[in-house]
Write a structure and sequence with these properties.
2 domains, three-stranded mixed beta sheet
Length: about 400
Amino acid sequence: MVNGSGINLSVFLCCEMVLFWLFVLAVAIQVGYAMYFFVRIFSLPGKNGLLPSAGQQPVSIIICAKNEAVKLKKNLPALLAQKYFNSAGIVNYEVVVVNDASTDNSTDVLKELQLQYDNLVVVTIPLGTERNAPGKKYALSVGVAHAKCDWLLLTDADCAPVSNSWLERMTAPLANGKEIVAGYGGYRKMPGLLNAFTRWETIHAFLQYSTYTLAGRPYMAVGRNMACIKSTLQKAQQSGIWKALLSGDDDLLVRVAGNAHNTAIVCDEMAFTYTESKTTWAEWARQKQRHLSTGKYYKMGIKWLLGIYGASHTVMWLGMVILLFTSYWLPVLALMGIRCVAYWLLWSVTAGKLREKSLIYLFPLFDVGWMIYNFVFFPYITWKNKQQWK
């Protein structure tokens, strides 16, 4: 006859074993992702082939701005100083700024800059204008309609390119037949844990979407730094899901029109853009809510892959903490060591390519922090929409 304590011990040991094998499965999934997707970061070149100076295609840089006077004054000169000329040595691009019903002094700033730059085109959306698309989507449609060129380069008013060859390097894949080009939009280094985590999360996201693209499964880009063919963007704008969100034009463009053959990644450090990160956790949370709202519109296969990756990450860390107090502690530490060495190596390589080596020593902390991040933002990843652009 088995007494109550014996039954309880058997149940405990059974639960312990089940948790261990769940942990093993989670680690296996994490390592599988690393071996199938993330190792492709090693093959991503730091330099891309450039277009010859003669015969370059004209490009329209589009910026949608709402009450961004200070940032426009600071960042537009760098966008207007790109070295991009046709065979006659004439500037071969325009910068189209859509002033979206701004109530600050954006109009005055843009008028002043137009006196200095002939290739700056300003399109103003008056207050009270009736819109056929929500938020930034309408401003972008206005910018595309006014763009004279078939090649488009998209960025934001709060971003600045790292070099005057940014335009050339970001559009080079278009000359090789690509229709969508995803670049890197980083954050400037500032003191504080929030800035460090923001920069780490950005390189983590780049590792994900760049290696998925290299594996033939593109799913996102960043609107701070991406190029595309005008007709490809117009195709996305005609999609039924285009108007579902106030922003998310970058991810939805890839969702509708991206495929294994027409999407490229640029990881050339001269093609990066940089912006300022949020300075408070509340501001950062609102920004992430907006960014993550697009995820629910990814293709089903991508959603499953990303979901399994995030879930396995959580099960792995929580399982490890519990199992360290069981008889399985030694194999748990060994398996966790294998996983962490692999991931921290991959993150280090990615950080090196993205000029973020100073973050390497914080990888263990942010590895755990990303689990908390997923818990906090789970509603916006799965069903909620952020309902405000600016």
